[in-house]
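Model it.
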Amino acid sequence: MTDDTTGGPRVHALLADGTTVRIRPVAPADHDQLQGLYEEMSPENLRLRFFGASRRSAELAADRACTRRPGYLALLAERSGQVIGLAEYDTGGAGTEAEISIAVADGLHHRGVGTLLVEHLVSAARAAGVTGFTADALSENREVLGLFADLGLRTARHFEGPEVRCTISLAEDDTYLTAVEERGRAADVRSLRPLLRPEAVVVVGAGRKPGSVGRAVLHHLKAGGFTRRLFAVNPAATSILGVPSYPSVSALPRTPDLAVVAVPAAAVPATAEECGKAGVRALLVVTAGLDADQAQALLAACRDHGMRLVGPNCLGLSNTDPDLRLDATFAANHPSPGTAGVAVQSGGVGIALLDGLSRLGIGVSSFASLGDKYDVSGNDLLQWWESDGRTELALLHLESFGNPRAFSRTARRVSRRMPVLTVDAGRTDAGRRAAASHTAAAATRTMTRGALFTQAGITATRSVGELLEAAALLHSQPLPTGARVAVVTNAGGAGVLAADACAEAGLTLPAPTPELIDDLLAVLPEGAAVGNPIDATAAVSEDQLAQAVDRLTRHAGIDTVLVALVPTAVAAATGDDLVRAVTRVSGPRPKPVMAIRLEQALPVELLPATDGSTVPSYAEPQAAARALAHAAHRAAWLARPAGTVPDLDAVDTDRAHAIVETYLDAHLDGGWLEPRACAELLDCYGIPQLPWAWAETEEDAVLAAERLHGADGRVVMKGHWPGLLHKTAEHAVHLDLRGEHQVRAAFRDLQTRFAGLLTGVVLQPLADRGTELFAGVVQDQVFGPLVLFGLGGTATEVLADHAARLAPLTDHDVHDLITTPRCAPLLFGAQGSGPVDLQGLEQLLLRLSRMASDLPQLAEADFNPVLATPGGVTVLDARVRLLPRRPQDPYLRRLR
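Modeled.
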């Protein structure tokens, strides 16, 4: 969203038909266009809008929209500079309920203009504290009544004669988000058709001589057999590579859907503008090296003319549908048709994935190299693959995220239908610097990305090779129902290597049951060792090994069969093909079967099976185990129902907002809340705190200690001054104070050592013994609030035993936070002291998540230590930092 001269923020978004409009607040200069909007309406529409019509209705409506006043907001939609819709709300200057009205230009109904405007009006109203809308309509106005009914918000109707009064609650819930998401998905997919299913393509900048990128793309399009119309633009040629060439886009015999732009960087903005004026619907800009002004001009042209954009600085895109055969890339080879959707930012990674998928026989359904990703993103491609009817596997390599929370919702939905895999790029400081340099992307922290991938059900790998290893298994075999692996081998050493790799990957190798032992010994050669690994010996025949594999796949205590093979002279002498034993399928295999061949030249291959399926074969045991661990994690994620965000009682959001606003009014640059305001904020969310008192003088400290101390009379004193972060490191804490004398001595010590800094002290009773934990929030500018949990105390930063999840937390997220850190066994009573109050711990994390979600100004919260005992969970020390940030709706439909 940016500001312009029209008087407010503007944002571009997609209508239901995939076209682009701009949404912005009304400015006084819009009066004539708004009046024209109404004057051009049919008498019938005017009657439905105004319950009647007069000659002055249009003028009065325009006057109203252009008059600024408290509690009123008017948003308009415009396309190509023409106003096509208006939505307004008015509270009358007071209260939390607003009257709304909507107007859409004749001829543009049923394209989602009104719905999109209302969505943006809802988001703005929520931010302004409005909780409900009301609207009056004629009962025969089915369009507007249908609009309200389909929003996804709770709506009530009250009929009064020919009129209907609609009351709409603005409370956000998953029903509304799902409705917005579905409308956005449908619009997004339609907007991508000119990119991925164009009826005509032009390459602008195709050179006459070999060596130019544009010529390479044109060659790929022609050689790949593109089945639709293909043109080139080059003023100096009438034909290039047998493709008709024209001097300009405007001179083409028909308007192309997609323009591939391969001109020098300085010419890109003008080319984009020419394409937009000609009616081109999408741009693929392969040109690199655009400066900031050129980049801004390129994106402005795309937005002004409603063109979707891939790139700049990219390898291109392709769609291998046999009916289309679109290959607009300059990769060395054409991608093989198949079922994997691929989106990358790095062209080099894209080439590696295309070659690897083709070699494996998985192939590609569609491919997009996003480059600097000015517009089309991984989120867009996920929605395309979800709808295209061809994609069964989604592969991503993303160095940055434009809207991670929207991406997370999309990925969670798509991951339920197909595996979504990614390379977690930029895990280290060096990698993040490289990503920022390469794509102008903001650096993101490893923990935050990990939380996003885990919660969204995305399989995150650490390299392109590992991505292909996992893809091979997920493409070819059913998911395992658990992590129990049976290793069978013809060489003991290979079996040991495979067993070690499985254990290191978090898989288990259960001991075979007596029944399974008897079953296997009945088919294996004499001398076979039936443990786990199962050493079938070098004497095993093809038929014996095949029978053993089949019996293992039918055993209830085994989830996956991993066969580790080495070539032997024994098998060669008898003519047995042990690899064929693994691929000999006598019936449906409900469990995955995998092979390890240490002599295999390639890291992973897909071996053809007798039933037409394939079996993955790996050169390294670690690769096989990693791939299987990914598959087991996916199976576990799918088996668990989607979590819900629990309702919380004793939450006072209004008071919390007032505390935040009061502080930021007095501290324009933000800062750390002082202890009293911090405690009050936690109290707004029902977060349990140890009793405390604030004292600014020695006498106040003595009186506070007398009120607070327990039966043993022991208290703690903590010094405070603005900016103090680590009290223990600064030696600003006195523990175990007993009696007035020690309290006075402690206060004088802090006052002396921190003269000129100390503003007061916090006194608390000495806490009971228990497990010290840490809970906190970091508000990431891109990803939103990240909740952290783990071992606390003075060593929390050194040990770094933390887990993280993105807010808002579901019940499943909270369970994962508690069970993931290494300290988790302590919470469940591993040392014999009994479990801590797990329900209280869950409530603490949920309330912290709610606080972070409610307050975008909350930049950081640090609860350390949090004392957990069987009797309860209590925050002993809390710090909260605020920054002057405006709330932003992450789910609002808009283009970047």
